[in-house]
Amino acid sequence: MHDQEEAQDSERPSRSARRREALDVLTFAKQLSELPPARLARLELPEDVREELAEVQRTPSHIAHKRQLAHLAKLMRAHDEETFAAARAALTNDRGKNARETAALHRAEALREDLLGDNGDVALTAFTTAHPGIDHQHLRALIRQSRRERETSKPPRVQRELFRLLRDLDA
Questions:
Q1: Rounded to an integer, what distance in angstroms lies between the CA atom of residue 5 and that of residue 36?
Q2: Which one is predicted more confidently, 67 or 99?
Q3: Residue (of 33, 41, 35, 43) closest to 68 by Cα position
Q4: What is the pLDDT confidence band of residue 167, given thresholds at 50, 70 and 90?
């Protein structure tokens, strides 16, 4: 009889493992609730989970929102993991894509700062050799106007235009 209980205990996950799984589902539910409705519509989710997500997003009060989120996680735990596999994969892909886009923006911003900095001529030469098809005259004019904007403390209109040009070339 004691052996049967040990066999049942070894098949069942520990309490802490179940708690970790529940917290993982709660985190996933929170991520889903923060998505815009257009993004949610593209995910494959069960209808009851969709309805509860809509309810969570409509709840303004902090404590009530937290309670609704816990209820959503409970609903989600009632479904199989495979039900949410596609949605999890989509969120993971989005995070990777967002990280790459952010890195590209940082590179463009750093390049703009290099072009406008003290060693701008060296950076400009390196950039024009890396991008031979660019309009050198237009780029130089943008850099000159951007420096003038900085010196006179004007709004950075041309600096933004230079950033957009660099961002589009990097993409």
A1: 47
A2: 67
A3: 33
A4: confident
